[in-house]
Each structure stands twice: as C-alpha cells, then as structure tokens.
C-alpha cells in the first residue's frame, strides 16, 4: 500500500490510536521516515492526544418543556398530520366535484337540454345510411327532424324521407332531358317558333338543370354537418366540456386563499423536517458535501 | 417508540445533548433553542425511530440542527485557514472561557462536533459518519486535522503563558 502526502491523513488517526493493520502500519512508518516534519507532528500527538472530557456538572434543567403527556395526543404532532389529512381531503373533494360537474356537463346537449342516452343511437342509425341520392331535396325536413329529436320511430321516418327524396330529382331529370331534346329537334328541323320563346325555354331548361345540380350537390355537406353536430360531435363536445370544467374548477379552488394557506403551511412544515427530506432547504447534506 | 420511551429519551439523553450543544455553540440561548428543535424533531419521528437508536439519532439531529443554525448565521468561514483564534461575534458572547474552550473555538463547526461526539460520547468513527452523513474517511480526516490544530493551539497557549 502506498501512503503519500495526499492520503496519509486517512491513516494518521488509526496509526496514532494503534488501529492499523500490520501492512498499513509498516507503510505509514515508511512514509513518516521520508517526511520527518510530519513524523514529529504525529509523534507529538501520539505522546499527548488532546481530548475533551464531558463536564458532568452541566445539566439541562428544562426537561419538563421536552416531556410529553403519555395519555394525551400532543398538539405538535397533530398539526402537521391534520394538514396532510385536509390536503388529501381537499384533493379528493376537488376530484369528485370535477368529475361530477364533468359528468353532468357531458350529458347536456349544445342547447342545454338533457338528451337521454337511449335516443343517441337512434339518431345515428337513422342518419348514417343516407346516400347522396336520398339526400336530395329534403334538407330542411331532415334538419328539423334531427335537431328536434321528435322521431319516435326513426326507421319509419327515414322511409318517408326517402320517398320524397327519390321522387323529386327523378322528375327534374326527366323534365330537363326531354325539354332539351325537344329544343334541339325544333331548332334543327324548322325555326317556326320565335327566338324569344326558344330563349325562355332554354333559360327555363338551364334554370331547372342548374337547380337540379344544386340540389344534388349542396345537400350532402349540409346533411353531413347536421349529422356531426347531432350524433358525433355531441359526445366529443361534452367530453371537452368535462375536461375544461374540471380544470377550471381545480384552478379556481386551488387559487382560493384557504387552500393556498394550507399549502403554504404544509410547505413550511416540510421545510422543518430533519434529514430524511434531503431536498428541502432546512437540511444540510449539500452543506456537508461542500464543507470539506 | 412510544411516548413513554420518548420521555425516557428526554430523561436519559437531554443532559448529554445539552452539554454537546453548549460546548459546540458556546452560547446557552442557542443551545436551548437547538435543544427544543432537536427533541421536537425526535418527537415527530418517534414512530420511525426505535428506542435503541434514539440516542444516536438525537445527537444526529442536534448536530444537523446546530450546523444549520451556524450556517444560517453565516458563522461558517474558512476556519481551516485561520492561523490564530477566531474572534468576533463568538468572542463577545462568552465572558469567561477556559483554555479548552478557546481551543474549541479554533475548530470548524464540523471538526468541533465530530471531536466532541468522539470524546464526550465515545462514538466510533463509523457511528459518527452515519450520524453526520459524512464518509468514514471524511470523519477521520476532520478529527485528525482538528486534533492537530488543537495540539498546536495548546502548545501556543502554553508557550504564551
């Protein structure tokens, strides 16, 4: 074992007190022979070790202030414990209130009316199978029916809607195609009819065709929007509401002075705890680490 | 530890802890304050501290609380580098001191504390390491350096007188 100037202090105390093993003691002797100044110092310490003796006459005469009632639960212990309990109770209460508010908020529609859970799947069943052709010409009716939720028998209703939807565009298409055919024939064969009549006929035709196209194209997105509002977005919306309400509630509750005071008391109490709580300011492990 | 055992701790160890604190802090009011704090902490932790470990635990709290107090008052200076006795605030607080107390004053708070634990209570270096949360090597070096300083101081005072 090599003992040098940087580590001899680790062995010096045990050397003076005679607690080194043979090998270490020999290494220490070798080192001290090479350093006479340190040898003299250590020999002087060995000759008369400077130690302290406790002064037995010093006694602590205020023991009564430290003693505790053996049958009574002291206040000092209860205070911190009560803070924890109250903090835990407050946390549970906040969570319960949050979930409660969220649950009720979730069961409200965008109109603020309570929708029975039984009705929701009915709306979906009724709306989802609607095809583009079926959708034509019945926007208003469908919207009203869906938003009002008045349909007791959705299957029946959707059938009646289908009939109307199917009939109308068919008629429009027949009219449009037959009128066009007539106009073409008339123009090619003989120009017997006045131009104004032809023009008005064409205008009518194009108007009708245009209307038919509009009717065929526009209802789809409208209907889809309607569906999402009533059957899809509603539960999502309610879940968002639920989260926002809970957060808001917790934020508002934790900002109140009462809770804030309790929290600060808990924090200050934790700061006074001894060394198990090494992360807290009141304790000193970092001080020890840096002290040497 | 039961309440009864805690009260036994007070009866059995409070004198020793008080002597230890008084020697370390050289100020009765400070020693009293740290006494109250120490036993309050012991009381709070009584459910996790066994009676057989209560004495070393109490000394451990006392040491930590005392060092903390000194640190907060910014009494911790480069004691190790001071060639002469440390003067100032401590000196004013103590009216009459014997040579031993003067010698104690030249030590750093940790040196003083670990040496007194060793000399007053006869704790082993290993026990002191656990109580102060220092390593065994640190404890040995603190005590060796402290004793060396004390030796030099005693020699100096002897020559002066």
Describe this structure in words.
The complex is a heterodimer of chains A (292) and B (161). Chain A has 292 residues and is mostly helical. Chain A contains twelve helices and no strands. By secondary structure, chain B is an all-alpha fold. Chain B is built from eight helices and no strands. Chain B is globular, with a radius of gyration of 16 Å. Chains A and B meet through α1, α3, α4 and α12 of A and α1, α2, α3, α5 and α6 of B.
Main beta sheet strand tally, sense and closure of chain A: none
Query: What share of the residues of chain B does DSSP label as strand, in percent?
Result: under 5%
Classification by helices and strands of chain A: mainly alpha
What is the terminal-to-terminal distance of chain B?
A: 52 Å
Taking Cα atoms only, what radius of gyration of chain A do you get, to the nearest Å?
A: 46 Å
Q: Detail the poorly predicted runs of chain A.
A: 117-128, 130-191, 219-243, 275-292
Number of helices of chain B: 8
Shape, principal axes of CA atoms of chain B: globular
Number of helices of chain A: 12
- Secondary-structure element series of chain A: HHHHHHHHHHHH
List keywords for this structure.
heterodimer; A: 292 residues; 12 helices; B: 161 residues; mainly alpha; 73% helix; globular
How would you summarize this macromolecular structure in one to three sentences?
The complex is a heterodimer of chains A (292) and B (161). Chain A is an all-alpha fold.
Write the SSE topology.
The complex is a heterodimer of chains A (292) and B (161).
Chain A (H helix, E strand, L loop, with lengths): L7 H9 L5 H13 L1 H12 L27 H32 L12 H9 L4 H4 L3 H10 L5 H36 L5 H23 L1 H36 L2 H16 L12 H7 L1
Helix pairs in contact in A: 1-2, 4-10, 4-11, 5-8, 5-10, 7-10, 8-9
Chain B lengths: L2 H23 L2 H17 L9 H19 L16 H5 L5 H7 L3 H13 L3 H8 L3 H25 L1
Helix pairs in contact in B: 1-2, 1-3, 1-6, 2-3, 3-6, 3-7, 5-8, 6-8, 7-8
